[in-house]
Design brief:
elongated, homodimer, 7-stranded antiparallel sheet
Chain lengths: 206, 206
């Protein structure tokens, strides 16, 4: 992903928090000389300063068949918004603002026992009060566990772009914030725009 | 993408309408033996029974450098929702419902004149009242047009999955609909769930 420097986020905590918040991601892989993708929830498996992602596919899913150490790209998306130049004081072109994390890495399959452990964690993550994790040896859970393929995505390149108009004059950033702030769905985005603007203003008087 | 038959949509009009509604997509490509992706708006270019997608990248974007006829996958996403088994009458596992279109094809670059025409259409599509398309020969628009790489994605495989629990008993589909219907953001999804349920009920009395 091409990321102009003003949009690039490198803070590991911000990146991991973003993945946890938007954990229904896309796994894109190279499959039979084409690029293919699936939509799945990912579990962040943190250790020391680092993390791995765990995911699972239906057994019928051919995209990671017959492969070991294949490359994978996990894509996580936050809010996005069309940005009209009418929001700007200065002349410009329309654009699109968005927030995304890309995790590039290698896929390693996990076995039945590890899949069972991870599925428990996955359910607890999305639904802390679910009674299911205690019952995974029962029907219909146990037979279904045999029908999944679990894998780790072991990251070797992590990219995070929060494209929020940081390259525009402060008046234009304020114009965009003002236009988008009515939309409750964009709160994650407008909160950061507001923060960027207040950091700029604070530095003005230093 | 692995699509169980009950989730597969093949109606061309539904697919094109979905892309137009969710046209800020992802372009995934194979780049230097890895998979890479960018987030961009796509324009649907319809002709006869068919369509092409047009998109553009910043000149600095290396992912389609030095390549002709490379493969591309455009991914368009609709709403998605975690589905708890507590919504169900019958015992089941948690899952995720989602709506997506994948367009696989070959990338062909477009030249300056074609890029200019397409940018006009793109702006008119997202913002019908914008004065910009008439002014593209002025500053700052004209110099910026020279800094983009435009391309067609010419489809050869189109996949559409609306995963809305159609494989579950009707009581469970009703349970999910009931749980999700409070969320206004999922209206596109719950409208279709409602339609599936009403088609089922109508057929019961045939």
């Amino acid at each position: 992903m091409y990321i102009p420097e003003y949009f690039r986020i490198t803070d590991r905590k911000i990146i991991i928090d973003f993945i946890k918040k938007h954990s229904f991601g896309i796994l894109a892989v190279i499959s039979s000389d084409d690029v293919d993708a699936v939509h799945i929830p990912f579990l962040v498996d943190e250790y020391k300063e680092n993390f791995k992602l765990w995911g699972h596919l239906a057994e019928g899913n051919m995209i990671i068949e017959n492969s070991t150490n294949m490359r994978g790209l996990a894509i996580f998306q936050g809010p996005d918004a069309y940005i009209s130049p009418v929001y700007y004081k200065y002349k410009s072109v329309p654009t699109w603002d968005y927030m995304t994390v890309h995790v590039h890495g290698t896929l390693k399959f996990t076995d039945f026992n590890e899949n069972t452990e991870k599925i428990k964690k996955l359910i607890k993550f999305f639904e802390p009060d679910s009674p299911i994790p205690d019952n995974l040896s029962e029907k219909p859970y146990f037979p279904m566990l045999k029908q999944i393929k679990g894998f780790y995505l072991i990251p070797d390149k992590i990219e995070c772009a929060f494209k929020l108009g940081q390259n525009h004059p402060i008046e234009d950033q304020m114009g965009v914030l003002n236009a988008l702030t009515k939309n409750e769905n964009l709160k994650e985005m407008t909160d950061l725009m507001e923060k960027n603007i207040s950091i700029y203003k604070k530095n003005m008087f230093k």
